[in-house]
Amino acid sequence: MDIKEKIKNLSEKYYSNVVKIRQHIHKHPELSFNEHHTANYVASILETLDLKFNTGIAGTGITGIIEGKNPGKKCVALRADMDALPIEEKNDISYKSVNKGVMHACGHDAHTASLLGAIMILNDLKDEFEGTVKFIFQPAEEKIPGGAKLMVEEGVLKNPTPSVILAQHAYPELVAGKIGIRAGTYMASSDEIYITVKGKGGHAAIPDKIDNTVLIASKLVVNLQQIPKSIAPKDTPTVLSIGKMIAQGATNVIPDEVYMEGTFRTMNEEWRANAHSEIHKMAKELADQNKVEIEVKILTGYPVLSNHIESTEKAKNIAIDFVGADNVIDLEPRMTSEDFAYYSQEIPAVFYRLGITKPGSDLFFPLHSPNFTIHDEAMKTGIALFAYQATQFLID
Q: Which structural domains are found in the chain, ordered by start?
């Protein structure tokens, strides 16, 4: 029996246990940088496997290794994120979140459980592959500066340094058993924009005696749309959206201040930096024209996620070998972002999608939905393919 068949058999063996692990993590979600229960739970499972691992990386992160034969020959890393979102769950399930206002609505419970399942399989097969598998359980994917950035800074990619790092992410648009993948630029950078327009407010009926901060702020919102629509390079996807505006006035009151928040996303790091300058420039020009003050703060978030070309093509072929060509889908670029991008800046990286929707179902809920759910059968593919990718990337 070859290693592929052994992995498939072991995935069946550990499947029910991994489902229970996911359900436990789902029931006890924790927000970014506060994954204490989750980290302790993961560590308790790793202890039963007699593996080398370290805790407390970037706060609650965990990293460790599985050594096969000739462990110094090569190293491959597998990563899962552990944090949940500030969302009130609406699912009526036995393992519904017990933490009010917190929910695993992005699949990180499945990511963590899948990696644990893959570790169980690889630990059983460590005498059948050469090299070392490094595993990374990461905090705070959902919150800037991102747990990935902090883990990299704390040396998670050293001693040993992996030749490649892989991660899989739940994808409701695909049914369980299918995989989505894309080589090259895949996900956008993500920056947060905070703007305050300050002027002399007053009675709305005497606009000539005041600074109409609401009108000025509205003009800025419209002006900023020139950046993605006409200033951005035509071949570079770009989004600038203002999602929050607070003007504490009234029907007849113009406030002294209007506050706004938004997001800026793109697929090119050079243009990203230029766009930041354009935002500041537009705000200054409008402030000068209207003799008001406009404060702009841009919080630089995650970089563009770029999947290493050769490694991603290899991962795609491995997936085809494991689940069949009909079950491997080529993905389009997405304007969402992922802090896995920080790993991709350091070493070859592959970020692929795991189908999680029940086959035959016309209904699925998107990521970050209070009704988000995962079909249990998806976990079989999640744990088995993760393990198989690791063994195949260890082969020269």
A: 3-187+303-393 (3.40.630.10), 191-299 (3.30.70.360)
